[in-house]
Specification:
Blueprint (H helix, E strand, L loop, with lengths): L13 H14 L1 H39 L3 E6 L15 H6 L4 E10 L3 E2 L13 E5 L3 H4 L4 E4 L11 E4 L1 H7 L7 E4 L2 E9 L6 H4 L1 E5 H7 L8 E6 L4 H12 L7 E4 L2 H9 L6 H28 L1 H9 L4 H38 L7 H27 L3 H7 L1
Parallel strand pairs: 4-9, 6-8
Antiparallel strand pairs: 1-10, 1-11, 2-4, 2-10, 3-7, 5-8, 6-9, 7-8
Helix pairs in contact: 1-12, 2-9, 2-10, 2-12, 2-13, 10-12, 10-13, 11-14, 12-13
């Protein structure tokens, strides 16, 4: 008696899986686009939020690299008695410059003067602009630059000449050197306008006159109000400990020492803190997109019962039916993920270009976002795939 061979189902290769999985997508392109749109919006939101945050952080770090983190500022602190006025010694800048590790030192002194466009403007209308005496090395210590004109030197610093911070220049309506402003009882010629100084915002809002000129023309007492210093990176901590005792050995508690770059450091470190909410919204949009994919796949199963029954009657196994619909769900989610990555990258690029920021999209965000779409696609396709595989071939063909 001849032995009968048991029939076995043919195996589907990767190419066959892709072919049968994409059949449903090719036959319903409009539905595919609408279903993938939810996934794309979720991924685009997440990529854009992370990218914009990373671009802003990169800009802050770039500023820190350019400005340096080795500058310290010394100012008068609080006296031992309430209401006591504390002054730094006249030679505070020179004393700081002699500390081991200090490369440069400069100072400014506050003046009880007002600056106006002309003497006809009321004295109270100063626009919040302070007048400060400045040493010649101030611009070098601050790593600042001039938008136009020149900086104070030994010659111009003795005469009625002034350099304006860029905010002060805007408030006075002065766009170029050569104009004059009224300080106390005389006109001063504007010889320069500064670029923005992120590490010294108080200088941006000030009118700066030479040290000698302030003493001779404006009654400056010669006591610096603020001392700026640059030290080597390796000696910043040591210098910070020595600044107060050096400036005022008898009462070091009267000297306050600060690190102006700490604000930028903190801002760079916490740049992404406020992105958590938007990331959560992007995640919700992604989940909604996953629900949309699941609904699309369930409807696809109901509409294609005849196809499923025909394939089952021709020998397709339940496992092959499941693979077909899971693959279709993965491809649908993958298309939405690719579109979302492109949209998120484009949105980040547009924001960076408009704000003059570097365009940064972390690879982990792209990879993680796309992996999330595939995971959601798998989960969304499991139930429809199992439902499709359980359809009876006879009932499916009869229903068709």
């Amino acid at each position: 008696m001849p032995r009968t061979r048991r029939l076995t189902a043919a195996r589907l290769g990767p190419r066959d899986v892709l072919h049968v999985g994409s059949a449903g997508l090719r036959s319903r392109p409009v539905r595919v686009v609408l279903s993938a749109l939810g996934i794309a919006i979720g991924i685009a939101t997440m990529i854009a939020v992370v990218g914009i945050s990373a671009s802003s952080q990169a800009q802050l770090l770039r500023q820190l690299d350019a400005l340096g983190t080795n500058m310290l500022v010394a100012e008068p602190g609080e006296g031992m008695f309430s209401g006591q006025e504390v002054k730094l010694p006249k030679d505070a800048v020179g004393m700081v410059g002699r500390i081991e590790g200090v490369e440069e030192a400069a100072g400014t002194g506050d003046l009880r003067s007002s600056v106006r466009r002309s003497e006809k403007i009321p004295e109270a209308e100063t626009g919040g602009i302070a007048v400060k005496a400045a040493t010649e090395g101030l611009l070098d210590v601050l790593r600042g630059g001039l938008a136009s004109g020149t900086w104070l030197n030994a010659a111009t610093g003795r005469y009625p000449s002034v350099v304006l911070g860029h905010v002060a220049a805007e408030r006075l309506g002065i766009t170029e050197p050569g104009r004059q402003v009224w300080i106390d009882d005389r006109y001063f010629t504007v010889i320069g306008i500064l670029d923005p100084l992120p590490l010294a915002p108080e200088i941006e809002r000030s009118a700066l006159v030479g040290w000698a000129g302030a003493e001779r023309l404006l009654g400056f007492d010669g006591h610096p109000t603020t001392v700026y210093e640059r030290s080597t990176d390796a000696s910043v901590e040591d210098v910070q400990k020595l600044l107060a005792p050096t400036i005022d050995p008898q009462n070091p508690q009267n000297v306050s020492v600060g690190d102006p770059s700490s604000a930028l450091k903190a801002k760079a470190a916490t740049e992404g803190a406020f992105s958590t909410l938007l990331l959560g919204l992007g995640g919700i949009a992604l989940l909604v997109g996953g629900v949309g994919v699941a609904n699309t796949m369930i409807i696809s199963v109901l509409e294609r019962r005849h196809e499923i029954g025909l394939r089952r009657s021709l020998g397709a196994t339940r496992g092959q039916i499941r693979i077909q619909f899971v693959t279709e769900s993965l491809m649908l989610s993958g298309l939405g993920g690719l579109a979302g990555v492109a949209l998120g990258g484009a949105a980040t690029g547009a924001y960076a270009s408009a704000g003059g920021l570097p365009w940064v999209v972390p690879l982990w965000a792209v990879g993680g976002g796309f992996a999330a779409t595939l995971a959601i696609g798998t989960v969304a396709g499991l139930y429809p795939a199992v439902r499709a595989s359980r359809l009876s071939p006879t009932l499916a063909l009869a229903a068709a």
